[in-house]
Write a structure and sequence with these properties.
- This protein has 218 residues and is α/β, with parallel strands linked by helices.
- The protein has one domain: P-loop containing nucleotide triphosphate hydrolases (Rossmann fold).
- The protein contains six helices and eleven strands.
- Strands 7-8-9-4-10-11 form a six-stranded mixed β-sheet, sandwiched between helices. Strands 1, 2, 3, 5 and 6 form a five-stranded antiparallel β-sheet that branches.
- α3 runs parallel beside α5 and α5 runs parallel beside α6.
- The C terminus is likely disordered.
């Protein structure tokens, strides 16, 4: 279960954003939509613990993120939350396998090359295990980023604007892949986007706009 309750966040310029209560049961797929400046990225960053709100509760599984110390929160996020961003942040000096090993290391999990191989095979990129990011196509790199998000068997997969730079064909492929992998893993999928093409792949939407927040169930 994922939940935000009465969240208020203050930005450095003094402005604030309010995110009224929201709840997602295990395995649900949500699109967080709205124009630029409506708080979509802030929503994701608060849900992952990358931002701490000025007030309110953040719950992932049975844990309240806002009560955790930084070290505990970093380890929890690495173990239980898979992150996929538009800028993929693959480490250029590491192979595909080592990028996934690094994700396990930061989560304080043991090295598990069998798990890594299984995830790469599931995404049909096992042949890229020894390649470096600069040798990959955009589509291949995106699959590696998804593999990295899945390798620690997270409770939730969160993606921030994963399709904004993609044409229709690649958008369809990425969203189908995210939804398929989330279902196979039993993970919740939360995608923040201004891209209307994403809606058709998701079961629920949360629409953010200045002053209003509405949840829609498909």
């Amino acid at each position: 279960m994922l939940a935000l309750d009465g969240i208020i966040h203050r930005y450095r310029d003094g402005s604030t954003v309010s995110l009224p209560s929201w709840r997602s049961e295990s395995g649900e797929h949500w699109a967080i939509i709205g124009p630029s400046g409506s708080g979509k990225s802030t929503f994701l960053h608060i849900l992952t613990g990358l931002l701490r709100p000025a007030s309110g509760r953040v719950v992932v599984g049975d844990h309240e993120l806002h009560t955790m110390g930084e070290r505990t929160l970093d380890r929890f996020r690495g173990r239980h939350i898979g992150l996929v961003f538009q800028a993929l942040h693959l480490v250029a000096a590491l192979t595909v396998t080592d990028n996934l090993r690094l994700a396990r290391y930061f989560a304080d999990l043991p090295r598990d090359d069998a798990r890594i191989r299984a995830v790469l095979e599931r995404l049909d990129i096992s042949g890229l295990a020894s390649q470096y990011p600069h040798r990959l196509s955009q589509g291949q790199a995106q699959r590696v980023a998804i593999a990295r998000a899945l390798v620690n068997e997270p409770l939730a997969i969160l993606a921030d604007e994963p399709t904004s730079a993609l044409d229709d064909r690649n958008c369809q492929q990425v969203m189908a892949l995210l939804a398929e992998q989330a279902r196979e893993s039993g993970a919740s999928l939360i995608v923040a986007t201004h891209d209307g093409r994403v809606r058709e792949h998701m079961e629920h939407t949360l629409e953010l706009a200045p002053g209003t927040t509405e949840a829609h169930h498909a």
